[in-house]
Amino acid sequence: MFESFDAVLLARIQFAFTVSFHIIFPAFSIGLASYLAVLNGLYLWKKDDVYLQLFDFWKTIFAVAFGMGVVSGIVMSYQFGTNWAVFSDKAGPVIGPLMGYEVLTAFFLEAGFLGVMLFGLKRVGPGLHFFATCMVALGTLISATWILAVNSWMQTPAGFGFNDKGQFIPLDWWAVIFNPSFPYRLVHMVLAAYLTTALVVGACGAWHLLKGTAPRRAGKMFSMAMGMVALVAPIQIIAGDAHGLNTLEHQPAKVMGMEGHFQSHAEGAPLILFGIPNQDEQRMDYAVEIPKLSSLILKHDLNAPLAGLDTIPRELQPPVAVIFWSFRVMVGLGFAMLGLGLWSLWCRYKGTLLTARPLQRVAVTMGPAGFIAVLAGWITTEVGRQPFTVYGHLLTAQSHSPLGAPAVATSLILFIIVYFFVFGAGTFYILRLMGRLPRDPTAEIGGAPLRSTGITPGPASNAHHGGSHAH
């Protein structure tokens, strides 16, 4: 039944499906590991139990997210051998060592200290426990560094040559790793991870503030999260702009598709806000645009000329409709995050951050926004690289394993069923954990600390009933 399908397209869909499930977990765990390190450090510094309570709460969620990220990542690496064997053969001498370094440095570091972070506070002491937490956080950042080095090299390859078998071979490892887009992509992704985590933590805190459960703990996490959003969102917009300028220099066709510029503009290009890309006719239908603003953004000159897709052969153009809209989703959510951060700053200035119900409702709504923005960003990056796997050198159609469409389609269906069941259950469990914030044990009622049932001290007149405490 799948004989009429394109095996390459099916393999691309399968990889896109698995990477979409995978990326949401590292995007969360990278930021959450750093948040746990901050909570641990604040507890040691201020000796305030609320930070330790929040650490205990979020470390369980981190463990589940970390585990699902590891499992989903392993599946992706298998696909290099099953669906993309030619790519693995051609690019393996470059990307293989980089991915091996990720395991040897980052994964071993994370795995070595994860158990100490999760279970070792009372066994190794607070100092070593804090060190272990920092090592886990560092491991997640190192992991992101190596993976983004691989991806960036595929986007802007450098420091390589070819052997007599047509394989990419490294000539300069520094140039391979620190390729032209790597610094921009690393900063953009790490900031995205921090924003994603801040929005989730903020949504969780806002949810419990609205419910009135554990207001001190919920208020602390909400305040920290909104502060992080207010700090990182504007930095991310600046970093994204710099990344876009770098992309324009090294992958101009991608930016042309993101901007919807089918035609070249000799005297200033408009910023197309919305429209319907018509790639067959090479035009933008029903365009809503602002004259010359795209030239101002990309070239810092209203009248700067910008080339369009009419300068790119049709067979080498990326799928414009996909990246045109995914880019707008990412940018739109980025400005929504900026608005949320500024709103929280205003409420903090007025002293109403923990009582501003409209802000808290919006924060709950914005909880998934980081994941959606990350997915939209990755779609823009990866689809915009098409039709290449190694930009400018290796076509996607030349990278596929010699498999028939029925084999790829069958494995794709199985992936969809298993992923939705396994990772859907894991995500549901994480949401259940977030919704069950325990009562703050330091809360007081009537001036006395809360006690367990059966040991609540009674008034002095009932002292003669002391035998009841034996129960």
UniProtKB/TrEMBL annotation:
<keyword id="KW-0349">Heme</keyword>
<dbReference type="Pfam" id="PF01654">
    <property type="entry name" value="Cyt_bd_oxida_I"/>
</dbReference>
<keyword id="KW-0472">Membrane</keyword>
<feature type="transmembrane region" description="Helical">
    <location>
        <begin position="222"/>
        <end position="239"/>
    </location>
</feature>
<feature type="transmembrane region" description="Helical">
    <location>
        <begin position="408"/>
        <end position="431"/>
    </location>
</feature>
<feature type="transmembrane region" description="Helical">
    <location>
        <begin position="322"/>
        <end position="346"/>
    </location>
</feature>
<keyword id="KW-0249">Electron transport</keyword>
<dbReference type="GO" id="GO:0016491">
    <property type="term" value="F:oxidoreductase activity"/>
</dbReference>
<keyword id="KW-0408">Iron</keyword>
<keyword id="KW-1133">Transmembrane helix</keyword>
<feature type="transmembrane region" description="Helical">
    <location>
        <begin position="20"/>
        <end position="45"/>
    </location>
</feature>
<feature type="region of interest" description="Disordered">
    <location>
        <begin position="448"/>
        <end position="471"/>
    </location>
</feature>
<keyword id="KW-0479">Metal-binding</keyword>
<feature type="transmembrane region" description="Helical">
    <location>
        <begin position="358"/>
        <end position="379"/>
    </location>
</feature>
<feature type="transmembrane region" description="Helical">
    <location>
        <begin position="128"/>
        <end position="149"/>
    </location>
</feature>
<comment type="similarity">
    <text>Belongs to the cytochrome ubiquinol oxidase subunit 1 family.</text>
</comment>
<dbReference type="InterPro" id="IPR002585">
    <property type="entry name" value="Cyt-d_ubiquinol_oxidase_su_1"/>
</dbReference>
<keyword id="KW-0560">Oxidoreductase</keyword>
<feature type="transmembrane region" description="Helical">
    <location>
        <begin position="98"/>
        <end position="121"/>
    </location>
</feature>
<feature type="transmembrane region" description="Helical">
    <location>
        <begin position="186"/>
        <end position="210"/>
    </location>
</feature>
<keyword id="KW-1003">Cell membrane</keyword>
<protein>
    <submittedName>
        <fullName>Cytochrome d ubiquinol oxidase subunit I</fullName>
        <ecNumber>1.10.3.-</ecNumber>
    </submittedName>
</protein>
<keyword id="KW-0812">Transmembrane</keyword>
<keyword id="KW-0813">Transport</keyword>
<feature type="transmembrane region" description="Helical">
    <location>
        <begin position="57"/>
        <end position="78"/>
    </location>
</feature>
